[in-house]
Amino acid sequence: MTIVISKSIVYREIPTGLPIPDQHFQVVSTELDLDDLALEHGDFVTKTLYLSVDPYQRSKMREPSIESYNSAYELNKIMSGGAISQVIQSNNPTFRVGDYVTGGSARWEEYSVIRRAQASQFRNTTDRIHQVGLPLRHWLNVLGGTGLTAYVGFRLFGDIRPGKTIYISGAAGATGYVIAQIAKIKGLRVIGSTGDDAKVLFLMETAGIDAAFNYKKISVDEALSEYAPDGIDFFFDNVGGETLEATINHANTHARFILCGAISGYNQSDEERYGVKNLFKVVSKRLDIKGFLVSEAAPPFIEDFHREVVGWVKSGELVVSDSVVEGIENTPKALVDMLQGKNLGKQLVKVAEEDP
Amino acid sequence: MTIVISKSIVYREIPTGLPIPDQHFQVVSTELDLDDLALEHGDFVTKTLYLSVDPYQRSKMREPSIESYNSAYELNKIMSGGAISQVIQSNNPTFRVGDYVTGGSARWEEYSVIRRAQASQFRNTTDRIHQVGLPLRHWLNVLGGTGLTAYVGFRLFGDIRPGKTIYISGAAGATGYVIAQIAKIKGLRVIGSTGDDAKVLFLMETAGIDAAFNYKKISVDEALSEYAPDGIDFFFDNVGGETLEATINHANTHARFILCGAISGYNQSDEERYGVKNLFKVVSKRLDIKGFLVSEAAPPFIEDFHREVVGWVKSGELVVSDSVVEGIENTPKALVDMLQGKNLGKQLVKVAEEDP
């Protein structure tokens, strides 16, 4: 008998505002006998190393009757998200002991028994991880879903000419800080907003963008008047609401907007959300506004993404940043902190050390 | 001496809400001696036959400091817009007596002396008018700017497959009633809204669309639930505000919106305008929203426009509708009525009979 205690995060109640640890989600401990898992052909067992904490997870904590692009979490089930794990037992020739496994719907638990039927949801990324030679946790960050979102979102602007001005809201978040640096590499003038002075400093000094501001201290309107006197040509929006309204006012004719998120409203009811009053300017300025979902939009850009982003990270042109908390039991708090914008770069949970 | 009294419409005051005849614009009579116009080489004189009354003219009645895609009208100057005129004197070989002249910035006056420097703003459309053989006033309607706007706006949706559902707001207006019929010809299921029961009847019985409703009697939300149970794939919006918000709620994934106007807010201050609260659905539904200006977007479609639209009008597939008031002195009232949605189809002013 090799008994381990496997902690997991169970979704308990639908939140109306900001979720609360111990109320809307709960840490549950389960005993697992690693010597008695009855693995059938195709099954394997993983130990979770890192979990990814993302804004879309809040949107899954909703009434299942509300339709959206993703499915709602089921009450009293273990939550899920992007993760990197390592195989510790296997009856599946594709996933050998010691291999690294990534997937977008890993359960938030320390040890996972993955049955053959679920195996196709996971990828064996061992060779690729060794070949690239960058830290493991980068695969949930700049080399993972949020990095891909940043890269593809940027490419969706289409024809980008150096010298144009881009504004990124939520610029110190997991997607924002990557797109801010990509835009800088591509020769744009880059303006970013965030909600905290330390992040302003990070954006200016580490990410090296042209102007960053704390929207809690200066309004988006004032900041764009000051930092973008010639107007905004591209807008990558993670925030929505008042930020979107202000940016429409500062948009140049034919400006292109990619809407990636609307985090300002994620914890609000429909009635509480900010109403954008100036949409008639979408007509008068002939704006082009697109909402996007990375999984749909990514395929044509995947190869370029791997080549360019790995190159920029290795050359040091793209600085990788993350906020890592330790211990799976801190995942709910990490999600709540991230929804309040406390993270700098990608929010991760380190669940365990990798096996040597 | 051949003295005529030429009435014109002079812009007197910037309105804050709906403009008021005699206050914001005024009818001015001027004596003109047609025998003593001192025409230099290149000059010519026209008699106005029809004036076009359009929503954008309200947007030109603004503080000149407010930038927009068009210039503001100048106070105490004669207003302008699309017109068809006939040449009555000429010292310009391109414009002979009896010829028809069209242009988008004709002065709202009965007789116009057009100097050589302005001549390039006008086109001699005599041959084309004779060749096509449709009534003169159609050239300010389905064959003119609003017809072109409808045609080009529809083409901007891109790949349109029959069987999809389109919703058109302001569907009985000058652009709306044309696009409603084009969409029907192209095999779409067409839903239109308007503000009056007679127009609902027109849309259903004359324009032959699938469903029309009076938004003053049934909310857009209720109407779309009833008439578009499978959701909206394309939205052509002339209205904005609450209508736009409701349509976002009923939009299918990847729905495409062309925003052509926002007449619901034209007479409102920035603060009074309706705030759209559900723009986060632009992200979750991956909507594609474009504002457009016909003059920019039209060039690739002009040839198709003339061929298709003339064909449809001649075959009777596209029914032409207009609201014509007589007398230039009624132009201010015609504009105000149109802004209140009293017109059916294109709002025109008949200024004079054509010469035989």
From TrEMBL, chains A, B:
Domain of life: Eukaryota
Domain annotation Enoyl reductase (ER): ranges: 42-349
Gene3D superfamilies membership: Medium-chain alcohol dehydrogenases, catalytic domain, NAD(P)-binding Rossmann-like Domain
InterPro entries: ADH-like_C (IPR013149), ADH_N_2 (IPR041694), ER (IPR020843), GroES-like_sf (IPR011032), MDR_fam (IPR045010), NAD(P)-bd_dom_sf (IPR036291)
Pfam families: ADH_N_2, ADH_zinc_N
One example GO MF annotation: oxidoreductase activity, acting on the CH-CH group of donors, NAD or NADP as acceptor
Positions in coiled-coil regions: none
Keyword Oxidoreductase: yes
Keyword entries, A-Z: Oxidoreductase
PANTHER family: PROSTAGLANDIN REDUCTASE, PROSTAGLANDIN REDUCTASE 1
Listed name of the protein: Enoyl reductase (ER) domain-containing protein
Organism: Jimgerdemannia flammicorona
